[in-house]
Amino acid sequence: MMILTDKKPRVNVEAILTTQEIHDIEHYIEHYPDPRAASLDALKIVQKRNGWVDDAGMEALGNYYAKSGYGSYLKSLIGQVTPVLL
After folding, report:
1. CA angle 16, 52, 56 (to 5 degrees)
2. DSSP one-letter string for the chain
3. Is the dihedral of CA 21, 26, 27, 31 positive or negative?
4. Measured distance CA(43)–CA(21) in Å, rounded
């Protein structure tokens, strides 16, 4: 029996992003008046490890922004982003 659902499982931010990546993201967030402006820098940080950003990385970034009190800006981008080589 297979259970189908439209709900995505929650991704643990600390399981996907390394401590250094989280530190680097926070570093960029501090440099902008609006934390959402650091979203491209955050994507570049995650992309640096594998050369691309997978669904789990996007979900982890979205959860990080939401958990950190920066709203759900990246969560709204999930599913709307087309692959781009940086």
Report:
1. 30
2. -----SPPPPPPHHHHS-HHHHHHHHHHHHTSSSGGGGHHHHHHHHHHHHSS--HHHHHHHHHHHHHTTS-SHHHHHTTTPPP---
3. positive
4. 10
- As given in the structure block, the two tokens for residue 35 are 């934390």
Domain boundaries, the chain: 16-77
* Torsion sign across C-alpha atoms 23, 53, 80, 84: positive
Residue type at position 4: L
Written as six digits, the tokens of 32 are 């902008």
pTM: 0.69
Residue whose tokens read 């691309």: 52
Tens of pLDDT, residues 38-85: 889 999 999 998 898 888 888 888 888 877 776 555 555 555 544 444
